[in-house]
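User: These chains co-purify. Model them together.
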Amino acid sequence: MVDGKAVLGPASVALEEARPMTGTMHVADHQGDTTHTWDTADPRTVQEIEELFREAQTTGRLVYRQTGDGSGEQVRLASWNPEEDTELFVAPRLAGG
Amino acid sequence: MTAATWWTAGLAAAVVLMPCLVIQLRRAWAAGVRRRRARLRAEALLWAWLSPAQRRQYRKRGWFEVTTASGRRYRILRGGVMRLDPHGSAYCIEATSPVPVADEMLANKLLLETNERRFLATAHRFPYRSFSSSLPSDLALWTSFGRATGDRPDDRRQPPSRNN
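Assistant: Joint model of the two components:
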């Protein structure tokens, strides 16, 4: 928050003229996963996803977007497009066992 | 003490202890339900991210294979990853937070497919035989290198719908 206004991330900018699109972020956790949805018509929901993105990146978790049938690609907040990348998975942090 | 006194004392103890036992049983049952629900959610999520070929393998055998950009083939199992080459390497890699095993399998798949180097830098590598012996006996047999391509009874249920 800056001067009482929410700081918009790169993905929240210039959504006003875009067609509304919804997406889901699955965050892997002890419940299997927790889903968070966003709607590009509602910038607040996109900001929430951006916040989760930041949190994931800070804690070393990788975020993937679904690119096709059975494939994924790592995505970072800077390159995330909420209108195109509508299925995200926040993977648990992995370590050698 | 007479038998009647023993019976009375036993009955009183049962009356006092029964609620505690019921509470413990309820807690254990609820925890079991939560674990099962988490497992089903994770299975469904994994299912949604698998390719048709991987789904077929996973449904039939409980594991699936991944081909990386370098052309290497890996088999992702519950509890580990094997590289399918004559040297038979196995890798141990796990989530640092408690998640169902299907979430771990999905994380391994995506990491291998997108960044094999990072996977290799993260995972601990083992000779295949020590990996195999660390698995439960039935799983070890089932994944045994050379036998892994054999059939295993299809005892897996259809992954649940995400709408459940």
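The first helix of chain A runs from residue 43 to 58.
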